Amino acid sequence: MRMIEAQLHSPRPRFRTATRVAIVGAGFSGTMLALNLLEQADVEVLLIERDRHRMGAGVAYSSSESAHLLNVRAGNMSAFPDRPDHFCDWLSARGLGCDAAFVTRATYGRYLRETLAGAMERYGRRLKLVDDEVLDIEERGGQVTLGLVNGGLIEADRAVLAIGNLPPHDPPAIAGAHLPSHRYIGDPWASSFEEGLAKDAPVLVIGTGLTAVDVILRLVTHGHEGPITALSRRGLRPHRHVDGLPRPKPVLAKPAPELSELVRWAQTEARGQDWRLVVDSIRPITQMMWASADAAKRARFLRHLRPFWDVHRHRLAPEVADRIDALVASGQLNFHAGKIAKVTVEPDALAVSWFPRGGDAAVVTRAVRMINCTGPQGDLLRSTDPLVKRMLGAKRIRPDALRLGLDIDRDGHVIDARGLPSEHILAIGPMTRGDLWEVVAVPDIRIQVSALARRLVNAHWTGGEGL
Ligand SMILES: Cc1cc2nc3c(=O)[nH]c(=O)nc-3n(C[C@H](O)[C@H](O)[C@H](O)COP(=O)(O)OP(=O)(O)OC[C@H]3O[C@@H](n4cnc5c(N)ncnc54)[C@H](O)[C@@H]3O)c2cc1C
Fold it and tell me: For the chain, does the N or the C end have fewer beta carbons within 10 angstroms?
C-alpha cells in the first residue's frame, strides 16, 4: 500500500520540451537519436563519444573486417523507420545492390557516418560532436551537468544514455583466475586478439553464438590455420537465414499465454512452413509479449528459452554460415557443449579442463589463446565502466529486476535507487532490454529512438505522428 502511495505521489516526469540534449555514446542508438531530434525540432544536440573510431558507427559497425556481414538483410536496415528505402537508396547511389543482400558491417558503418556528416552540414552549429568520455551525470536546478574525463563540464536540459552493451563478464571458472593477458582475452571488442598468435596455435573460444562466429571469422581471415575449439554450455550455434522465403505473416495477438504452450504453438506452426517464418511472425508482438509477462515468467524465459530463442531469432547471413560449415567440415573448427571446471597456466599454453554436457569425465583442451565470446552483458552491478559505477554509487540509476540493463520507466527515464524516475536522464538501446526485451537490432532501435525524439521535443503533441 505504502509503495502504491509513493508511486501515486512521486513526481512523474513530464515531457517538457527539450532545447539542449546531451547524448552519451555515438553508436547507432545515440547517432540516430541525434538525427531524429534535429529533424523534428529546433534543438541543440551534443553527441559525446569516447572512442573517436566509433563516432557514428558504434561497436557493431566500426568493424573493418570484410568477413563481418550484417545479420539482417539490407532491405530492412534503413536507419529511419519512416523511410524504409533509405539504406537501399544509399547503396544503389553507390552502385551496390540491396534487396536480399547481406552487406558488410563496414559498409553499414559508412552509411551511418555519411548520414551523420550530412546532418553536420545541414544543421551546422545545432549538432556538436564531442570527442570525450562522460564520467558522471548530475541533475541540478532543472538541468543536467555531465562531467567529462578531460575535466570539462557540459550542461543540458536532458541527458540520454546511449552507451550500448557492457563488456562481457568472465565466465565463473575464469573470473579471478589471474590469467596472463596474452593467453586470455576477456573482451574481444576491446583488443586485437589475433596479434602475436602463431598461425598454427590452438585457440579456445568460449561461447558459440554470434560473438564467437565474429571472432572465428576474424581469426581465419587473418590467416589462422590452427585448431579452433568453440565451447558453450549447450553448444548451440546460430542458425542461418535462407533465401527465397515468402514474407512472414505477422501474428497480431499473443498465440498462447504460457511459455510451454507458446513453444508447442511454434512447433505446430512450423510443421506446415519453414520455422523461420514462425519465429519472424511474432516479431511485431515480441515487445508486447515481454511487457505482459510478469517477472517470474520473464525469468523462466531467460533461464530455459533464451539460448534457443537467440539462435533462431538472430541468424547468420548464408555466406557466413557457409564459411563456418566449411571450417567445421575441414576439421579446423569444433563446436562442443560443456562446462569449464578449471584453467591452469602452463609455460606454453592454458590447460582448460571442462566437462562435456551430460558427462562426468573431464576433458582437457590446451589453448595458446582463450577468447571470451560469451557476449555482451547488462548486469550493472558487475560492471567496471566508470560512468555506470559512478551513477550506481550515487544511486542515480539501478539495475532492472532481471539484471539485463538499466531500470527505466515506460517513457525511457532511468529509475534511481529509491525507485523514482529521473526527470532529466533517459536511456535507449540494448541497455533498456529489461523493459522492452527486443531492442537490440536496428529495426527495433530505430523505432525506439524516433519515438523518444518525438517525446523529447513534444512533436507528437504538435503534429508529429502519434506514438
Ligand atoms: C557485433 C555486432 C553485430 C551486430 N550486427 C547487427 C546486424 O547485422 N543487424 C542489426 O540489426 N543489429 C546488429 N547488431 C545489434 C545492433 O545493431 C547494435 O546492438 C546497435 O548498433 C547498438 O548500438 P548502440 O549505439 O546502442 O551501442 P554501441 O554501438 O555499443 O555504441 C555505444 C557507444 O557509446 C560509447 N560510450 C559508452 N560509454 C560512454 C561514455 N561514458 N562516454 C562517451 N561514450 C561512451 C561507446 O564507446 C560506444 O561507441 C549487432 C551488434 C553487435 C555487437
Answer: N
25 CA → ligand 1 middle, Å: 9
For the stretch 259-286, pLDDT in tens is 889 899 999 999 989 999 999 999 889 9
Q: Is 373 in the pocket of ligand 1 (CB under 6 A)?
A: no
Q: Is residue 179 part of a domain?
A: no
- Mean pLDDT confidence for 57-79: 94
Give the Cα separation of 93 and 115 in Å (integer): 13
Who's near 246: CB < 8 A, 6+ residues apart?
A: 277
Number of domains in the chain: 3
**In a mutational test of the pocket of ligand 1, which residue from 46, 50, 80, 374 has the highest number of ligand atoms less than 8 Å from its CB?**
50
Which one has a higher pLDDT value, 315 or 458? 315
pLDDT digits (tens, 9 = 90+) for 5-31: 344 445 555 556 779 999 999 999 999
Domain of 292 in residue numbering reads as 259-313
Which residue's CA is minimally distant from atom 21 of ligand 1?
A: 28
Is 306 domain-assigned? yes
In this structure, the answer to whether residues 285 and 359 fall within a common structural domain is: no
Q: At which residue does the C-alpha cell 579446423 appear?
A: 332
**Residue 127, CA distances (Å) to 20, 27, 118, 122, 435 in order:** 10, 15, 11, 9, 29
- Residues contacting residue 88 through CB under 8 Å, at least 6 positions apart: 74, 75, 78, 98, 99
Kindly state whether residue 178 falls inside one of the protein's structural domains. no
C-alpha cell of residue 355: 566437462
Beta strand 134-140 with 143-148 is antiparallel
